[in-house]
Amino acid sequence: MTHAYDIAVVGAGMVGAALATGLAQDGFTVALIDRAPAPEFAPDAAPDIRVSALSAGSERYLQQLGAWPQITGMRATPYRRLAVWDQTPHPLSGLVPRKFTEVEFDATGLGTSHLGHIVENAVTQQALWQVAGATAGVTFFTGHGVSALTERQDKVTLALDNGTQVDANLVVGADGGQSKIRELAGIGVSRDQYAQQAMVLSVRYQGPVEDITWQGFYPSGPRAFLPLHSAGPEHPDESWASLVWYDSPEQLARLKAMPDSELLATIQKAFPATLPLLTHLDSKASFPIARQHASRYFSGRVVLAGDSAHTINPLAGQGVNLGFQDAQCLQTVLKEARRANQDLADPDRLAQYERQRRPANRRMMLTMDLFYHLFSNRIPPVHLLRNLGLGAARALPFARNRVARYAMGIDDQLPAVLTQLANRIPGLNQL
Ligand SMILES: Cc1cc2nc3c(=O)[nH]c(=O)nc-3n(C[C@H](O)[C@H](O)[C@H](O)COP(=O)(O)OP(=O)(O)OC[C@H]3O[C@@H](n4cnc5c(N)ncnc54)[C@H](O)[C@@H]3O)c2cc1C
């Protein structure tokens, strides 16, 4: 049986589910297709190991969609402070005062109540699925992936692997970094795998819920702390947190092979003394990290959004925030196409979307790479640059605030000091 829609969104992850909801709220008929079943959430269960730092901009977007009350009704932890510091010894250490290698942003100083929220991905996705499910115009197809795509003159036919066929005027590939839709549309990617991998751990610690996220940089890579919610009456005076440890794949394999008690003790020693006393390790997983950018954001009747178009180094946790910005931009462009009575796959309209989003996504990639290179490269001039960069950010309240506002997704302008530094890093101009 064939079903016909204005738009088929393939991938109901955070980006696809948000986009489908927004499009349907604007009156489009939308098929929302995901090979996975609905995400689960149990209030008493341990947190999802995948968490995201949702920016103030993403919070506003989720408010508009009507998903934010569901998110906060489940679990979301606001953070008011964000600290970044450098622990890498180098030949110039003695010359650069320590205060120039530390930056702390505080919501109060930025005239805002919080810098962002740490939210489990399953919570955001679940909330968006609830809102999408309650929005007339969204039809879910779950549990079966897309296996074929046939483009005709005025529509695309998608074949799901259970034999269902879905017709749409436009297909959005929101199916993640390994996008099948991107492959079926013949869109290539440029990809760079980083030498480091990221290990993510869900832990309980002694003490109240913290209001700070921090990241310390070490020669082998950064180590980060993201606060989560209280561990509840079963574990009084304990809270949950997500830790991230970037290191070589070999070192992470050694750490992952340790018994939990030994790994907890190793983390406690390896992380800064600021880390509260850890009491329990619930789960751990490691991920390769890569920078990837699609060569085009659209082809024919297929357009990409979120990780299928771009994946960035998760250092500052901006991946899903960029994806939400893609979704908002694409929704606006498609609304304009409909108002002008144009085909939703009009190449000029889709080019307008790519013209707006590609430079913004590339800018964030460059910023993440700038941090990555500055903090993982021990060549003295690069260290000097790094310290000058952070020093400038710290010493000048204006620059510091601008850096923070950009990282938080409040501003979409990259501070000039970062643009200048990015341009000095070799190999970053090919994206
Ligand atoms: C270690 C790590 C830490 C991160 N931390 C952060 C952070 O703090 N903040 C942040 O913003 N980002 C973070 N990110 C990035 C973030 O997780 C991604 O940017 C985000 O999940 C992308 O969302 P998406 O909806 O585009 O894709 P995905 O979340 O990958 O969703 C894709 C969806 O498509 C479905 N799908 C796939 N193939 C098919 C198919 N053939 N047919 C049908 N459905 C299909 C999948 O089931 C899935 O539901 C991190 C990433 C990593 C690796």
Automatic annotation (TrEMBL):
InterPro entries: FAD-bd (IPR002938), FAD/NAD-bd_sf (IPR036188), UbiH/COQ6 (IPR010971), UbiH/COQ6_monooxygenase (IPR051205). It comes from the Bacteria. Residues 5-365 form the FAD-binding domain. Its cofactor is FAD. It holds the Pfam family FAD_binding_3. GO terms for molecular function: monooxygenase activity. The keyword Protein biosynthesis does not apply. Pathway: Cofactor biosynthesis; ubiquinone biosynthesis. The keyword ATP-binding does not apply. Keywords: FAD, Flavoprotein, Monooxygenase, Oxidoreductase. Belongs to the UbiH/COQ6 family. This is FAD-dependent monooxygenase. It comes from Marinobacter suaedae.
